[in-house]
Amino acid sequence: MSRKRSYPSSCRCRRPSLSRSAGAELQFSVSLVDRLLREGNYAQRVNLFTPIFLAGILKYLTTNILELAGNEVYNNHRIHITPEHVERAVDNDPQLSLLIHVDASDEVDEIPQSKKN
User: Fold this and answer.
1) Which of 6, 33, 56, 72 is in Cβ range 3.0-4.6 Å of 85 for a Cys bridge?
2) pTM of the model
3) What does the alpha-carbon distance between residue 88 and residue 8 come to, in Å, rounded to a whole number?
């Protein structure tokens, strides 16, 4: 007398589904970074971990910039971070200033000149 066991549906313990951002403990949306990478045609193929890595880099850079801007606010005896504080913080850090500020002459060379009659 073999009898089939019936398992109630409550026994099936499923993990709650996590987003890729929550799984990697990131604030930036990994799915959004993935979509922007794919739509931007930066490469023919994008690895599964590339958007996670890039979102982690964005989190790291944002944290550093906001920390430096917060120090700038504290030094100036202010309460709120303004864009001027962020700009000053980036300008005072040599590595961030190299990363953020692009040489303006490169962008000017790319602008096509209109023909004058």
Assistant:
1) 72
2) 0.70
3) 62
